[in-house]
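Before relying on records like the one below, remember that each one covers exactly one chain. Contacts with other chains, cofactors or solvent are not represented anywhere in the record.
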Amino acid sequence: MIEPVTISLAGDPQGKGRARAFRRGNIIGHYTPEKTRSYEGMVRTAAMDAMAGRAPISVPVEIVLRAVFRVPASWSEKKRVAAITGAVWPGKKPDLDNVIKAWTDAMNGVVFIDDALIVKGSFSKVYGPAPLVVATVAALD
């Protein structure tokens, strides 16, 4: 049995930025924004640390990803408590699908051989006392 791996990264959750296009003469190229490359690099480093030298998973996997957002300081104490206890949800940027994409792209080749192996998942955005993202990847063998 392959042991699940849990990766966590403190800090505000970030989504994958859209590819940018540029033109140099008659050539049109594309690049990933620096902010996205930097964030994916931090996720990849955290994933390598969590894998601790293990080989990437080569069977279908399930991902459970939880993006925890900081409660706005301007909110009243009553609303802050409601947010932390789950009565208020963070319906704000970044979009959850972009956070998922940033994380799965960063874990590609490190935690699993290819992100095509992701067949099941549970994803959520919540408020908490400190911002972070936690992802657990488990083999479905």
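The chain has one domain: 5-139.
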